[in-house]
Specification:
single chain; 487 residues; alpha+beta; Arc Repressor Mutant, subunit A; 3 domains; 16 strands; 19% strand; elongated; binds manganese (II) ion
């Protein structure tokens, strides 16, 4: 994949994009206090004196948040820095009572790494990770309750964040979209962030610039803050890149500014210009010691790592014989992948994958239920596939059995037994049915023999119907053709 090229009046332009993603760390308590991180509590229910920025309160680092950040760093194939420091990022805002955010600046906990993304044309690309640092979240200002007042909810203040910064490696909106989906999949596998962009637990800042194809270096970039869905990130990149090209081609210049993406209009507008850019006056956080990790700690976290989506996908292809596409669909979500593996154990994995991606996902969609709520267990889907593979039932009957399973949750073997759905593979029995159909339809037999061979399909249908769908279709075809052709 060569990326997105914009053909302008003055030549071809390429898109340059980098992302900064804030991921809320999954932990029971906040990163520097013991207050709960529970989402959906009453306003200001989960606020300690530290979170409220009371004078003289001291932050205490939550070890579990450090563990989560290291685990995420390992999942990004990144260097874990044994030495890191906290720094104060100073700015004034009503939902930041301390007057500064405790973050990391010069010495982040995680250094360079990479994430492999899979593109639609089947190719893959490595996206560089610049760093990952940990910091505290701010509270929320609420402006839409009263026409005259704003409210502050500090429940989120102090919740742990991982800020992940990529290198400017994206060359198209699709690449950025593939990266966000992959990142979300990785943190969900690891259990370090729930990855819900619509709830704000994963928030994305998008940096975009353009340059002529073949040009060295980078031109001025614009940043779009807090774009809250994969689709909007892709739209924002596309819109912004075209705006840059148009500006340059009309003799204008791009100023460094922060812009807002408006999802309703599908465009960006200026939020603040560079002359108002923040100078955060970072300085070392005096209330926290530098963070020093030893090898044993890092090893402990490594030992807790689960198999990640890339490794799982490769294994599904190599060991289970799935196509790369099927494997990547099934591996995007860990629970789906584990469900599939359970269903496929001891059975034809490729057929199980087909059933799962076809009828099974369609059933979940139709019932609007999640995998966990499925009436069909993985073991029972495996058994159903086995019944077809071993010719106990035919494919058509399997669909009927599946429909019954989706309602009752029953074992397919039991359904087949109780309803007498076993496929008829006794050629004598099938021949009896064929003879009856032929005897009842002499005019069609004559027409077939006179050259209307398309009637074959009709005859097969009649025989299948007469067998109540239980005849083995391959045998029906073979025996029927022999009889009709008079052999
Ligand atoms: Mn940040």
């Amino acid at each position: 994949m060569t990326g997105m090229i914009i053909n302008g009046k003055t030549g071809d332009w390429e898109v340059i994009c980098g992302l900064e993603i804030h991921c809320q760390i999954i932990s029971k308590s906040k990163i520097f206090s013991g207050a709960s991180t529970h989402y959906g509590s009453d306003p200001n229910e989960n606020v300690s004196f530290v979170d409220a920025g009371m004078p003289g309160m001291l932050p205490t680092l939550n070890e579990y948040c450090v563990r989560q950040a290291v685990k995420t760093g390992l999942g990004l194939n990144a260097k874990i820095n044994k030495y890191s420091e906290f720094a104060r990022k100073n700015y004034f805002y009503a939902d930041l009572p301390q007057g500064y955010q405790i973050s990391q600046f010069k010495y982040p906990i995680v250094g360079e790494g990479f994430v492999e993304i899979d593109l639609e044309d089947g190719s893959s690309k490595k996206i560089g990770i610049e760093r990952l640092h940990i910091e505290q979240d701010a509270g929320k200002s609420i402006h839409d309750i009263s026409p005259t007042k704003s409210f502050i909810d500090l429940n989120r203040a102090g919740v742990g964040l991982m800020e992940i910064v990529t290198k400017p490696d994206f060359r198209s909106p699709e690449e950025a979209g593939a990266f966000l989906r992959k990142l979300r999949s990785i943190v969900r596998y690891l259990g370090t962030c729930d990855g819900n962009m619509d709830e704000g637990s994963m928030r994305c800042d998008v940096n975009v610039s353009v340059r002529k194809v073949g040009e060295d270096g980078y031109r001025t970039r614009n940043e779009m803050k807090n774009v809250n869905s994969v689709k909007f990130v892709m739209q924002a990149i596309d819109y912004e890149a075209r705006r840059h090209v148009e500006t340059y081609e009309n003799g204008g210049m791009i100023e460094q500014e922060t812009r807002l993406f408006d999802p309703i209009k599908g465009e960006t507008r200026v939020m603040r210009k560079k002359e108002f850019a923040h100078d955060y006056r970072y300085f070392p956080e005096p209330d926290l010691l530098p963070l020093v990790l030893d090898d044993a700690f890092i090893q402990e976290v490594k030992d807790e790592m689960v198999e990640l989506p890339d490794a799982k996908r490769r294994r599904f292809v190599a060991e289970l014989g799935l196509t790369p596409y099927d494997a990547s669909v099934l591996c995007e979500d860990r629970k789906t992948a584990e469900w599939f593996e359970k269903a496929a154990r001891g059975h034809d994995a490729k057929k199980v994958a087909n059933w799962m991606m076809g009828d099974f996902f369609a059933m979940l969609n139709e019932k609007k239920i999640s995998l966990e709520e499925s009436p069909i267990t993985p073991e029972n889907l495996g058994k159903l596939v086995e019944l077809v593979t071993t010719n106990v039932i035919n494919g058509k009957t399997a669909k009927d059995v599946f429909a019954i399973m989706a309602e009752s949750g029953e074992n397919p073997e039991k359904i087949v037994d109780e309803k007498g759905l076993k496929q008829v593979t006794d050629s004598g029995e099938i021949e009896k049915i064929i003879d009856a159909v032929i005897a009842d339809n002499q005019d069609n037999v004559a027409a077939y023999r006179a050259g209307k061979v398309a009637l074959m399909g009709w005859f097969v249908g009649q025989v299948m119907k007469a067998s109540k769908g239980k005849a083995n279709p391959g045998m029906v075809n073979q025996l029927l053709k022999a009889k009709l052709d008079g052999k």
